[in-house]
Amino acid sequence: MLDTRKTPGRSSPRARPAERIFGYSESEVQGKKVNMLMAEPYASEHDHYIKHYETTGEKRAIGRVRTVAGKRKNGDIFPIELSVAQVAFGEKVNYAAFIRDISEKAKLESQMLENSRLATIGATAAKLAHEIGNPLNGMYISAQLLERYLKKEGSLPDRKISSTFQSIVGELKRLNSLLAEFRSFYRSDHYDFQPVLLATVAEEVLALQRAQYINRGILVEQKIPANLPPVMADSDKLKQVFLNLCKNAAEAMWDGGKLTIRASKGSQDAIVEVSDTGGGIPDGIDIWAPFTTTKRRGTGLGLMIARQIVADHRGTITYASEPRTGTTFRLTLPLSSSRSI
């Protein structure tokens, strides 16, 4: 049970941090079991653990600091550091829990791990491009020269050999394109951070793809408020992110659909959502991993590059997807008034 004694008419000072963390008022939890603040499997195991401890004296959590999952009033699950102590009041045995919300700490650790992962991929990409790029480029140029020579001399081989030769040239071209994407990922490009209006970026990107949307029967809707403050960004790099997300969205809607770009203002960030009504992203796929793609064509590097660009802007990119319903990518980008680079 929770010890929720309070001063009549107002929340006690010790209750206010808990109210902020969990979203409940003190009156809502008074007399209730602490299980209501726990996520599974901790909520179901709690009573058994207490009974086991009081029967055997075996400690599993008491006196230790553990990282577990808490549950807010709105259902959100979040990480907490929990320390439980036994407190005796007369003949009763009660327990006091010391809780610290470590959501931001966990988020920072996750970002550090992701940055380390991206750095490793970048180093691998640099080595791969260096070791393979030059000989591959030489092979491609030689194949093009050979093709021109054969055409000039009028000694083109038969259709089967010609088809095979064209396949070789096509594959060499594809590999060169793949290496070019690798280079754009690992290369330490200069960023020109300036206040940028998201509506302008979206309009320019959509203009590039408008003919394709019309041909595919895709309706485009842009919902970016005219009074949305600018973000601090490199306009060209941000266009690359928007173009990649919109291109992926269009390719997910082969039979037509709706592409929506919306934006809103957060406390210190602009929030951008790019949504489609395609088939969704299958479960179990790490879309951020290199060479991972659900498209009929593609290198599987576009989203990885987009994520790197967003990270370089000190922003975040996440997604939510439902089968046969669609996918929404969500970006947060610092407002120009909230940071200086």
Q: Can you put this structure into words, describing what you see?
A:
The chain has 341 residues and is of the alpha+beta class. The protein folds into three domains: 16-101, Beta-Lactamase; 105-186; 194-334, Heat Shock Protein 90. It has eight helices and ten strands. The chain has helices at 16-22, 26-29, 42-56, 103-153, 159-186, 198-216, 235-251, 302-312; strands at residues 65-71, 77-89, 92-101, 194-196, 218-223, 231-233, 257-265, 269-275, 316-322, 326-334. The strands form three sheets. It has a five-stranded mixed β-sheet, with helices on one face. The two termini are 50 Å apart.
Summarize the structure.
The protein is an alpha+beta fold. The protein has eight helices and ten strands.
Topology:
Blueprint: H1 16-22, H2 26-29, H3 42-56, E1 65-71, E2 77-89, E3 92-101, H4 103-153, H5 159-186, E4 194-196, H6 198-216, E5 218-223, E6 231-233, H7 235-251, E7 257-265, E8 269-275, H8 302-312, E9 316-322, E10 326-334
Parallel strand pairs: 5-7
Antiparallel strand pairs: 1-2, 2-3, 4-6, 7-8, 8-10, 9-10
Helix pairs in contact: 4-5, 6-7, 7-8
What is the number of helices? 8
Overall morphology: elongated
SS elements, strand count: 10
Classify the beta-strand content into a percent band. Answer: 15-25%
CATH architecture of the largest domain: 2-Layer Sandwich
Rg calculated over all Cα atoms: 28 Å
Distance between the first and last residues' Cα:
50 Å
| Annotated CATH homologous superfamily of the largest domain | Histidine kinase-like ATPase, C-terminal domain
CATH class of the largest domain: Alpha Beta
Q: Stretches where pLDDT falls below 50 for ≥5 residues?
A: 1-11
Major sheet: order of its strands? 5-7-8-10-9
Fill in the CATH topology of the largest domain: Heat Shock Protein 90
